[in-house]
Amino acid sequence: MSILTLEEVHASYSGGSRVLHGISFTVSDGGVTALLGSNGAGKTTTLRTISGITHRRGTIRFAGTDITGMRTDKIARLGIAHVPQGRGTLPGLTVKDNLEAGAIMRRDRAAVRADMARYLDLFPRLAERATQRANTLSGGEQQMLAIARALMGAPRLLLLDEPSLGLAPKVTQDVFRTIATLQEQTQISMLIVEQNSALALQLADHVVLLENGRIAASGTPTDLMASDAIRRAYLG
Ligand SMILES: Nc1ncnc2c1ncn2[C@@H]1O[C@H](COP(=O)(O)OP(=O)(O)OP(=O)(O)O)[C@@H](O)[C@H]1O
Ligand SMILES: [Mg+2]
After folding, report:
1. Atom of ligand 1 nearest to the CA of 85
2. In angstroms, what is the span from residue 221 Cα to ligand 2's centroid?
3. What's the total number of domains in the chain?
4. 100: which residues sit within 8 A by CB, 6+ positions away?
């Protein structure tokens, strides 16, 4: 079963630049879809479109609800958390306050406290730095915080835009290892945009290759790796 379905989705920005030209793909419930493609292919725009930030048409369904025309805040409240490219933290606030802010829409305070404990456990580097301001964290720590903050909203689907951006290879591996653990423990569904295709392919059960706002290929990592042409062109 899929939690997210895009059917023939087109998207553009005000000013008229058309970026997505009829893309269709799914994220399975509890699964990970990787969205890959070169710079400017439309990956970030795809995530923004799902979050309701671009002009869009076609059909986007989330957990059985048509969200195509919905406002961004309502889409977030339905259970889609978006970690934007270049991280999503409140720089002047401490780690703990960032996590609290992530849960601001929730009323179940006991569950929020339990999630706080759970994510500080999953991200020990954040636990050690609970009272440190976000803007004094290292790049990798900030990325972890952005993800943990998104999780504090108790989403059903996590949209991750290039979690490895600007990170050293070893730190990138740490971030991916944490994402993999998180996925194993919580079975949260994810749509992950990545330049580091090797790591994304390890994590994903479904891969979508985007080229100039169109889908060039899609399938399981094994399917795509089996094609020499696709491997050479996209998967380095
Ligand atoms: N706010 C905007 N207004 C107008 N055009 C935009 C806007 N944001 C992005 N674009 C254009 O949309 C196209 C796709 O951009 P997008 O950011 O989705 O690419 P991307 O695949 O995420 O690339 P990257 O790997 O570099 O992050 C680009 O040509 C870009 O210039
Ligand atoms: Mg991008």
Report:
1. 27
2. 21
3. 1
4. 116, 152
Q: Is 15 in the pocket of ligand 1 (CB under 6 A)?
A: yes
Closest residue by CA, ligand 1 atom 18: 42
pLDDT in the model for residue 98:
96
C-alpha–C-alpha distance, residues 57 and 137, integer Å: 39
Q: What is the pLDDT of residues 11-43, one digit of tens each?
A: 999 988 999 999 999 999 999 999 999 899 999
**Is residue 236 classed exposed, middle or buried when 0-12, 13-18 and 19+ CB atoms within 10 A define those classes?**
exposed
The average pLDDT across 196-202 equals: 87
Residue keyed to tokens 């409140």: 90
Q: For ligand 1, pick from 45, 160, 165 the residue to mutate: most ligand atoms within 8 Å of CB.
A: 45
Say what the pLDDT of residue 217 is.
93
pLDDT score of 231:
81
What CATH number has the domain bearing residue 52? 3.40.50.300
Q: Ligand 1 atom closest to Cα of 46?
A: 18
45 lines ligand 1 (CB under 6 A): yes
pLDDT tens across 151-176, in order? 999 999 999 999 988 888 888 998 89
The 10 Å Cβ neighbour count of residue 12 is 18
195 in any annotated domain: yes
pTM for the whole structure: 0.95
Residue 177 forms part of a structural domain: yes
